[in-house]
Amino acid sequence: MGPAMFGTLVFVVILIVFLLAIIVANIKIVPQAHAFVVERLGAFHASWGTGLHVKIPFIDRIAKKVSLKEQV
User: Fold this and answer.
1) What's the distance, Cα to Cα, between the start and end of the chain in Å?
2) Are the beta carbons of 34 and 66 closer than 8 angstroms?
3) Tell me: the pLDDT tens digits for 10-37?
4) Is residue 72 part of a domain?
5) Does a structural domain hold residue 49?
6) Which of 31, 25, 33, 27 shows the shortest CA–CA distance to 53?
7) Helical segments of 1-72, H only
8) Which domain range does residue 40 map to?
9) Residue 1 pLDDT > 80, yes or no?
10) Total count of domains within the chain
11) Is residue 24, in this structure, part of any structural domain at all?
12) Contacting residues for 8 by C-beta, under 8 A, at least 6 apart
């Protein structure tokens, strides 16, 4: 394995690790009795209920985390 191939291999491994980190960071779990308000490019897009959701990196943003528990 020559130096050029080693450099390419290192670059590919770093790129894969970087992409996996972005994907994992954008998987969100909404807990029970909560809802997340999602904005896309600064405008309201959706309200996420309980469960697993995936947001689009750099486009979507969790604007607010709302508790749905009854207040006394």
Assistant:
1) 68
2) yes
3) 999 999 999 999 999 999 999 999 999 9
4) no
5) yes
6) 27
7) 3-25
8) 3-67
9) no
10) 1
11) yes
12) none
